[in-house]
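--- STAGE predict ---
source: upstream dedup step, 1 unique chain passed
mode: sequence only
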Amino acid sequence: GDELIGKGDMYAQTKFVIKKIEAALKTAMIGEAKKKKVTELYNKGKAEHEAGNHQASEAVLAEAIKLLGI
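--- STAGE serialize ---
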């Protein structure tokens, strides 16, 4: 019961974060090296998310957000 709701929330939140990073990557005024790192983190985070590893995904995506400054 409750566990399923928690996972659903985490899934929805991660999807929101992924969209936020996608949008920010298009407009971010950051150097190429930083953009490359963010893209790597984003891809890893998205893969973890799709594999159901939500805690790993959250951690990686949080790092990408920090680099983007959003």
